[in-house]
Amino acid sequence: MSTKIEVGGDNWTQAHLELYQRTNGAEGHFVDFSRVGASAETPCLILKTTGRKSGEAKLLPLIYGKDGDRFVIVASKGGAPKHPAWYLNLDANPEVGFQVGPKKYKGKASTATGAERERLFKLMAGVFPPYNAYQAKTDREIPVVVLEPQAEVASL
Predict the structure, then answer these.
(1) Quick count: other Cβ atoms within 10 Å of Cβ 114?
(2) DSSP H or E stretch at residue 50
(3) Are strands 30-31 and 70-74 parallel, antiparallel or unpaired?
(4) Assessment of whether the complete model's pTM goes beyond 0.85
(5) Is 114 left (phi over 0), alpha (psi -120 to 50) or beta?
(6) Which helix (H) or strand (E) holds 61?
(7) Residue 106 pLDDT > 90, yes or no?
(8) Which residues, at least 6 apart from 57, have a Cβ–Cβ distance to it below 8 Å?
């Protein structure tokens, strides 16, 4: 069942994160992004990175896709000219935590390149079609990140 979150509203990503955590992924795992041209059942995970400057844990909800046992996320930042801070954090430290529904993992993040990046970007544009418009409006190649679970854990 999709969670109704006012996408684009004030502090909507923080509200999404808090709902996901409070319900242990029972709510917030699937979000209605139909008003922005995506599915009413768009899958979301919680990513935990380590701040490259602060060293502090950073949590945020992100849309994901599946590629076998791996999870795929996109560092689009809505097509902005610069990469999102979370991507810079995981580029500096690829050891991450992430939660998918009620399951929590520690894992490793890597940036897809070449043909794999192209294949995974198409996969993710199928999950969230606005990624195509985001790529068209920026000169940077939007990174596609693969999250490989290493172990299931009790908490992020």
Answers:
(1) 7
(2) strand 42-50
(3) unpaired
(4) yes
(5) left
(6) strand 57-63
(7) yes
(8) 48, 49, 50, 51, 156
